[in-house]
Every structure is written in C-alpha cells, then in structure tokens.
C-alpha cells in the first residue's frame, strides 16, 4: 500500500509548540490569554490580524525547530515500511514561510529516525495541490489533520484518514485516527 503522511500535527506536535509559544507571547503583548475556544490557535487571541501574521511569520522557522514527533510515529512507520508499505511524506511546508523547507524537513525526519521513501513539499494554502500529489504518486491513503485536504483527496478518489486534533473533532465525514498504533493496525488489516 502507498501511504501519504502529513507532518505537522500528524508526525509532529506542531499545535502544542505553537499554542505554548502563543500563550507566552500573549503574556508579553496584552496578557489577555485565550479569548476564543474551539478555533484554530492562530485565532484564539485578541491580537490584530497584522500582529498575529507578523509574529507567525517572524517565528515559524524557530518553532519548527522545536517540534518533536508524535508518540510512536517513528516506530510504527518503520514497521509499515518493514511490512512492504511505501511511505510518502507530503507536507505543506513549501509556502514561503521557511528559508529552506526541504532541507529543514529532511533534517528533522532524520533526527527523529522517521523513515520514508519519498518527501514532497506542497503549499499548505493550496489544498488541491496535496490531492494532486497523491494522484501523481498513486497514494492509496492520505493521513492528514486538515479537513480541507481530506475533502480534496476524497473528491479525487484518494482514501483519507483524518488525524484527530482539537480543531477537527466535529468532523465526521472521514475515517478518524487517533494515534500511530491505531493507524498501523488499520493498515495491516
């Protein structure tokens, strides 16, 4: 089976790192804390759009270097590869937010011993691009935390599994996966 896997919030603890950093920055900025729940982290605080976008832009690369892998992701991806499955990491990091996204991502995957057969970076803000990449690479299953990406993949005939996060809990159209052991068990069935 050919498996496509997103990185942020599927392989890495992106939300955890981003939220902790935003909480700390908010203390310096206004100290009003989270004012909106059940929305994406970048919209939880009372910052202006310009303040949030500037802070994100100025800090995203630093934050990416703080990411750690989701529990057991490396272990179960290795087991999938050892079982003959093809692993294609498909991440939306080629969107102008990083100085050298391919090398940064490659180093991170190597640092945490996350094995793969192919690494492809797309524009995170173009959800159709991931679906197109899945088609071009004959991906059987795409595992992503983005509802929009899963939606585009399904519309293009690619089976999509939604990796559980706080901001996608109300979504019920896709197979939901909660951890890497569960993903492994579904794939080997």
How many structural domains in the coordinates?
Answer: 2
Morphology call: globular
CATH architecture label name of the largest domain: 3-Layer(aba) Sandwich
Mean pLDDT: 96
Q: Rg from C-alpha positions?
A: 17 Å
What count of helical segments does DSSP give? Answer: 7
Q: Write down how many β-strands occur, each being a DSSP E stretch of 2 or more residues.
A: 6
Look at the structure and name the CATH superfamily of the largest domain.
Answer: HAD superfamily/HAD-like
Major sheet characteristics: 6 strands, parallel
Q: Name the poorly predicted regions.
A: none
CATH names the topology of the largest domain as: Rossmann fold
Overall description:
The protein is 43% helix and 14% strand. It has helices spanning 14-29, 49-64, 73-82, 101-111, 127-136, 147-155, 180-188, and strands at residues 2-5, 86-91, 118-121, 141-144, 159-163, 175-177. The chain has two domains: 2-13 and 68-188, HAD superfamily/HAD-like (Rossmann fold), CATH 3.40.50.1000; 15-64, no CATH class. It has 189 residues and is α/β, with parallel strands linked by helices. It has a six-stranded parallel sheet, sandwiched between helices. It is built from seven helices and six strands.
Helix-strand layout with pairing:
Layout: E1 2-5, H1 14-29, H2 49-64, H3 73-82, E2 86-91, H4 101-111, E3 118-121, H5 127-136, E4 141-144, H6 147-155, E5 159-163, E6 175-177, H7 180-188
Parallel strand pairs: 1-2, 1-4, 2-3, 4-5, 5-6
Helix pairs in contact: 3-7, 5-6
List the keywords.
6-stranded parallel sheet; globular; 189 residues; Rossmann fold; alpha/beta; 43% helix; single chain
